[in-house]
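Researcher: Go.
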Amino acid sequence: MPFFVIFLIDSVISSNILFIGPSFAPSHNNFYAKIADTLSQNEHNLTFLRPIYDERSRDKFMPKFAQKLIVIDKNGEDGKRNLDDSSHIWTTEFKMENVKQNMKPFMEMLKAGCDSFLSNMNLLEDLRNSKFDVAFVEPFDACGLGVIDYLGISKFILITSTTHFDHILPFIGEPLELSYVPSVGSLHGDKMTIWQRYENWKMDQVFSGTIRELFDEEQTIYRERLGQHLKSWKEILPKASLVLTNSNPILDFPRPILHKTIAIGGISYKKSEILEKEWNSVLQLRPRTIIISFGSMAQSSQMPKEWRKSILDVITLFPDVTFIWKYEKDDVEWANLAGNIRFAKWIPQSALLGDRRLAGIVSHAGLSSVIELAYSGKPAILIPLFGDQFRNSKMMARHGSVEIVEKFRIASDFKIALESLLRSDGMLQNARNLSRKLQNQPFTPNELLLKWTSFVAEFGPLDSLDPKSARNLNFLQKSFLDVYGIHGVMPDMTILDNATINACGLSSLLRQSPKTTLIVDCRGFTEFNESHVRTSVNAFFSKLIRRRLFENKLDDSCLLQQLTSHSAVCREMSEKLDVVLYGDEEKPRGTVKRRNASYNGCENSSKILKTLRDRLEETQKFRAVMVLEGGYKKFESQYPQLCEASPGMNRIPQSFSQPCLSIPNGDGITKITPFIYLGSQIDSLDENMLKALDITSVINLSVTCPKSVCIKDEKNFMRIPVNDSYQEKLYPYFPEAYEFLESVRMEGKKCLIHCLAGISRSPTLCISYIMKHKKMSSDEAYRYVKNLRPSISPNFNFMGQLLEYENQLIKENVLRPEQASRPYRNEKTSQDLLCPPKVPKSVSSVFTPTPEASNEESMSDAEPSATVNENGKRSLTEMPPCRPKALGISNRKAQLSSAASVPITPDVPSPSSEFSRLSFEAGIDPENQPSSPSSTASSYYSSSEDSSQLAYTNPCFVMSRAPTKECGGIRIPSALVNPVFCDEANEPSGSGSRAPPNFRFKKFVSRPTSRPECLRSSGVILLQHSQLPATTEETESPESGFNESCVDDDRKSISSTSSLEISCK
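Model: Structure:
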């Protein structure tokens, strides 16, 4: 069989594309040609393959810009003869009973064309070796699908020259809601009676069933020609990356579609064409002009004579209107009496529709013609004849710009419709409004085609867009009949009253209304981590928030903010929600009854549930607020499948009420350098402040804090997803953040670094930049930032990572070894540089000498001098700003003789340090020093028999008025010792041990400080644990990640400006 290859253009290529566009209808050819030319004109190397199915449309609408055009002629004339006579289109009533019979000639033509196409094996082999990136094929027949599979093209796009193809939707997983969406062959619109809905469904079954029979027969053909190993068309269809439809969402009936379905209707519309002189003179003959055209398939010359006569009689009634009639033959003597008709075998329809002198058009409602008149803003009379033309006419009628005339009622209704078109201003106005909408869409059809094609070429095949689960559901599952059946046998009374819901009711809400149900777990974080109801959020309230909640001092916005920030249900809330609260009915283990029990962390959850329910109801933001009857344990016992455990059970949480703890009168935005500002989440959301300071870049150190709305360009925004906990790694982000800030500096911009409260995470990152930028040690950089923003307080973990970063900068020769904040071991000399190590007191374990090794006579009891600070809390004596807030042990030379706060002597380690520490006069073996802040405390012990003078200063420790306890010969305030962990410890062993024979050890565990202020020595000790104990002040810290512990009521938190010293011998 002959075929012709024409090379049209040699241009820069982007993707190698194969386009299979068989020729069987002019409207389809036009759609193919426009897509092909659009791709070719945008630097894609496109090969257009045109198998000839219908000889009459062989040369119509050829692509003009394809790089290669291949035309495959037919072997026989069967298809041509079958379509020579289309007169039956005029006289046959389009009903579901005769659809299959009417489509039979068309189906025979397609099968014959497919067989001829696939007989060109040499051509197919050449195409197979071309290695195409993407292929386009229309699933109007299955022949092209078989070719795609044979050529091995995995990235292919389906195109439909109609609004959609009903017969492929079930196989790609796209729903077709026939109750309100007209099928392609439907005779009705979107508003149907029950009988019309039945006809709509039946038409879909008949029409789609007929096409699927054709597909099965063509599948047999392509397997016989190309190989039995080829996939079936049902397997090939779901593999399509995209489906491009000749639909427009503004014009078409609304219907549910897949993400892979892209509407490009209107791509074939030519916005402006120059009207030839001949047609310009025709339009000038009379004030108004009307076009009469019934397309290419249904020719006006084959219209029944009586219908033509009826139209002619109406035309003679409007002598001031020129009628341009597309008529395919020369026998026009029957219209000699009408002097206002201009017959033509071809008319420039697009150019005429774009002329303001054209009053309207009489058309057959083919989709291409409908889209053209919609874009041009012209009213029309539509006379649908067959196929999708009935649906198209109903689609246009909903916009109020057309009149519909049934073909069997032309004699009676055509005159009325023409009068309405010429005399009704409403139709013209509606048509123009529709045109303006179509021509001002956010994305043009050309843009959608080009961007999606490039996307598929680079990332296809797009398996993530294939709804595999939807394709595998049966009728009962899709229609939810199985669920309705189960629901019918479930208990009716699931909600006991307006305030309580039982376990069965909650399970029903989870299954039936998960998107409108918010479940709040009011238990502790540990219990929530172990197990909780699916989709629930943890309402972990700190002591401060509970007190505010019970005293009705907590703003509604605080509560609602937590819901919207922690729950995906609330973020997508389009209607009022049902809220279910639950706790544990049982009394929590370890509860100790104390005074002011309503404020402690172990009270029964019933009070929280009741208070929270009342407060949420008062907001009137929810449909219902209910408490789960029986609590979580009862629900879990009945519905374990609806419960789950948190994925990261050892992770220290951020409090549910965390955003509410931001300090109202905080530091605000702090200028650190001319281009770096430090602040909190609240600051980052203040658009006016950011604009006033000319801040155009933001670094956000959080997982959930929202992005500032005024930062539009993504290159000016950086998110570092870390929480403020003792397990997060911030160190790996230092280099990337440094590069980001350097680019900000070089571009002359300004950047805000923020976390939730601007206390721990963001200052840590800021300090890391200052260290490298200004070549400072961690201590120096910390003091530099602390001086500008006194509220900063990085946690132990982050301070340790700053020391690691300092070592790295020394290795990179950014810092000198003598700048180190702790002894630095030179890898070449294996010698420790700088000062001897100093060990911090804020540790989990400390070893002290026994009474036998100390001088009991010189021991003195030291009681704190209690005062009331500005916050109304009892605290210890204020100390000068230069004083370190540290709990330490100095040597004898310190001569601290009393508990009063006095300036510390130079011998006390790190005068500028604010990190709680203790140091020993006795030497510590350098070989046994820990190499990181997480080293164990067992490496450190005192080896001196001399008595040491102790100075304890720690502002964050919880103190007590209770008598002191002896622990290892040193009198220590009882609040500094957790008696549960106070026990004897074995003497350390190892080669580095230097303890004298009569030396014994005791161990006590103290409560760590809430924030380490500085790490100066290499002897920093931190016990890595998922849940370190925290002080009351820690649980009230805005960035605290700890659970609140149950401390005695008479223990009070010491303010950050207080200190305590106890002198001992």
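Model: The first strand starts at residue 3 and ends at 7.
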